[in-house]
Design brief:
Layout (H helix, E strand, L loop, with lengths): L1 E7 L6 H6 L8 E4 L2 E6 L5 E2 L10 E5 L14 H15 L3 E5 L5 E4 L14 E3 L5 E4 L5 E7 L2 E4 L5 H14 L2 E2 L9 E4 L7 H8 L3 E4 H8 L14
Helix pairs in contact: 3-5
């Protein structure tokens, strides 16, 4: 599971010019759990070269992944879709922004309503779709989530499965031992033959990925490193 911050600017805002200029290199920033990410003008995980941003403006804190619930599910397709959404909401980590600047940090939800933090440490919980503005920066950031719950196919040799499972978990992905509709990715290796898992994954519209994808995911080192493509 990854939280992703994407830079954007309102139509007609000077931030549009910034996005096409030097600040156009902002993000996306891909945050894995758990971790604390520094936002600031210099020497930061998320660096914003704008004098309106403090040298150390804020911290974004991502909590640990929750437990993966029991994948057993029954009922209609609509029920399964809702169950999967509920399942991911339990599993995905919390995320909050803590302001440490003299300028301030503003958070708005999807409707544009401002979230006022009442905590002594000037922090605010974030949700998917929230807009984060580091005052008075003309570029702001939209929060998205990318759930990755992988299953390494049973046709992969056992030692190789253990290695790939370790790689996926260290990269911040969730891993289930057996295929279920709650998995978002099925990982296969060279020479994999079509079986019930592959048929089920394709039928459910899930990503069928090669083991090289899992290895590339584990090689990410910074928040600027992109996620590997899911189609080869």
């Amino acid at each position: 599971m990854f939280w992703i911050l994407k830079a954007e600017a309102a139509a007609g805002d000077p931030g549009q010019e910034l996005l096409s200029g030097s600040l156009g290199k902002l993000g996306p920033y891909i945050l894995k759990a758990p971790g604390t990410y520094k936002v600031g003008r210099k020497d930061s995980d998320i660096s914003i070269n704008d004098r309106a941003v403090s040298r150390h403006h804020a911290d974004i804190v991502v909590g640990p992944l929750g437990p993966l619930p029991d994948p057993a599910v029954s009922g209609t397709a609509v029920d399964r879709t809702k169950a999967m959404a509920d399942w991911i909401s339990i599993w995905r980590p919390s995320i909050k922004v803590k302001d440490v600047s003299k300028f301030g940090t503003l958070v708005c939800d999807r409707s544009g309503t401002k979230k006022q933090s009442e905590t002594p440490d000037r922090s605010a919980e974030l949700n998917e779709g929230d807009l984060v503005v580091f005052l008075h920066c003309k570029v702001h950031f939209r929060l998205e989530c990318k759930p990755i719950i992988a299953c390494v196919s049973s046709v992969v040799e056992s030692e190789r499965r253990r290695q790939l499972t370790h790689n996926l978990k260290s990269a911040g992905a969730g891993v289930v031992a057996q295929w279920s509709e709650f998995a978002t990715h099925l990982v296969v290796d060279d020479g994999a033959h079509c079986n019930d898992e592959i048929v089920a994954a394709v039928s459910a519209g899930r990503h069928l990925v090669h083991s090289r994808w899992a290895e590339a995911l584990a090689l990410r080192q910074t928040v600027r490193d992109v996620l590997p493509p899911e189609e080869e």
